[in-house]
Amino acid sequence: MLNDDLARHVALHEALGFRFRAQRLLLRNFVTFAELQGDRFINTARVLAWAVQAPSPEQRRNRLLNVRRFAIAMHAEDSRHEVPAADALGRGLFRRKRPYIYSANEICKLMAAAASLPPAGTIRPLTYAMLFGLLAATGMGISEAFVLCLGDITEDGLIVAKTKFKKSRLIPLHPTTRKALNDYLSFRLRLATRSDALFIANTGIMTTLPGFFAACAVIAIVYALLLLPLFFREPLAQYTRPLLARLRPVPA
Q: Residue 209's domain is classified under what CATH number?
């Protein structure tokens, strides 16, 4: 019975657009544990016995809260399902790492370093200079930038397809960002490649995450610049859009 309940619970969340992968795996683990004990309904004692098997307090609390949300949904259908208290294993304190916010000067140095990457005269340095500038000017995520295609560039801005919850969104572009992007495209479109990716490597294929981190490593080592690309997000966009106008002109 718990197995059937879980299947319906997962199907509902997936239909609403949630990936629900990590939650599904955790709940599957719990249901298997509970059914081996002969349980047909969620039992608080069983939830706690399963949750405390996790190696750390954070993971134990995460297990508890995932099953608790499942239990709340099931209890609404059948009161024989018990809902464990949220603080049954103590109150957790989530500590978010403090993001590093780049200054305007640091972003200029980062873009200049990217534009100097070898081999000179190829698309690689232009790609990474434009990529860093676009991240700073728009606040978009690195994974979103990687999958941008030429067709995603419109008069209204950039279309980011199938982001969280399988939805698409439009990112408006500042005039200086648009100009820098057009300069980059004047070089990008002259390359003979079948790829329609906006950002490509010298091989003519879409830029990859390993290639991106390799470029970051070169910049960090050669130019002694701090690189925390995953923190390159929204706080920057409010004052960094005009920086793209300083990007080195694309060779004719």
A: 1.10.443.10
If you count them, how many residues does the chain have?
252
d(CA 188, CA 174): 20
Q: At what angle do helices 2-15 and 57-77 cross, to 10 degrees?
A: 90
Instruction: Name the nearest CA neighbour of 219 among 229, 204, 209.
Output: 229
Q: Which of 241, 232, 125, 227 is nearest to 180 (CA)?
A: 241
Residues 142 and 207 in one domain: yes
99 lies in some domain:
no
pLDDT, tens digit (0-9, with 9 covering 90-100), for 158-202: 998 866 666 788 999 999 999 999 999 999 999 989 999 999 999
Tell me which H or E stretch contains 169: strand 169-171
Between CA 237 and CA 188 the distance in angstroms is 25
| 63: pLDDT strictly greater than 90 | yes
What pLDDT was estimated at residue 163?
Answer: 67
Q: Is 183 left (phi over 0), alpha (psi -120 to 50) or beta?
A: alpha
Q: Is residue 27 a contact partner of residue 6, using CB atoms and an 8 Å limit?
A: yes
Alpha helices in 16-82 (DSSP H): 21-36, 44-51, 57-77
Residue 22 is encoded by which pair of tokens?
């990590």
* Distance between CA atoms of residues 49 and 64, nearest Å: 10
